TrEMBL record:
<feature type="coiled-coil region">
    <location>
        <begin position="146"/>
        <end position="173"/>
    </location>
</feature>
<keyword id="KW-0175">Coiled coil</keyword>
<dbReference type="GO" id="GO:0000160">
    <property type="term" value="P:phosphorelay signal transduction system"/>
</dbReference>
<keyword id="KW-0805">Transcription regulation</keyword>
<keyword id="KW-0238">DNA-binding</keyword>
<dbReference type="InterPro" id="IPR011006">
    <property type="entry name" value="CheY-like_superfamily"/>
</dbReference>
<dbReference type="InterPro" id="IPR039420">
    <property type="entry name" value="WalR-like"/>
</dbReference>
<keyword id="KW-0902">Two-component regulatory system</keyword>
<keyword id="KW-0597">Phosphoprotein</keyword>
<feature type="modified residue" description="4-aspartylphosphate">
    <location>
        <position position="54"/>
    </location>
</feature>
<protein>
    <submittedName>
        <fullName>Response regulator transcription factor</fullName>
    </submittedName>
</protein>
<dbReference type="Pfam" id="PF00072">
    <property type="entry name" value="Response_reg"/>
</dbReference>
<dbReference type="GO" id="GO:0003677">
    <property type="term" value="F:DNA binding"/>
</dbReference>
<dbReference type="InterPro" id="IPR013971">
    <property type="entry name" value="HalX_domain"/>
</dbReference>
<keyword id="KW-0804">Transcription</keyword>
<dbReference type="InterPro" id="IPR001789">
    <property type="entry name" value="Sig_transdc_resp-reg_receiver"/>
</dbReference>
<feature type="domain" description="Response regulatory">
    <location>
        <begin position="7"/>
        <end position="116"/>
    </location>
</feature>
Amino acid sequence: MSTDTPSVLIVEDEPDLANLYAAWLEDDCDVETAYDGNEALDAIDGAIDVVLLDRRMPGLSGDTVLETIREQSLECRVAMVTAVEPDFDIVELGFDDYLVKPVSRDELVDIIDQLLLRATHDEQLQEFFALASKKALLDDQKTESERQSSQEYAELEDRMAVLRVQVNDTMQELLEQNSYRELCQDITRESVFQE
């Protein structure tokens, strides 16, 4: 994910609607538009952070575009923005979020912010667990005096401490958003009851 202005691809077969979304987002994002599934696949690359994807389009459907994005392991987040009411078939789809049209400017901005925040959290967690794995290996293989005299080990512990704070801060920010607070409370309750 880029750390500066997020790059957003709007995939919408109604050009007026795609252009409206683009106008809403252009002050905060680098915006590209694609008016069908083939254009979308041509436009998607590693530089795209978020895809706002219509589900029902002539030719390649949004579902097919989404499946291709996931098969290619592209790092972008995908929000379906569609008039298709969700049904149980969404369980198998690899999107990150789902908005039912009509949507407002605020809803689009909020969903992009949420997806970018979740991506940041994912990256922080991945780095934290990679470092934790290295620390566990060194803890197992090196004596305490060897670890205490190692500059690299001290830097590893420092980086883990910083990441722990960042992960907690990002999680707190996610929890402050109502839908995520409810979801995380449900997860917490379920895990408590399963223990």
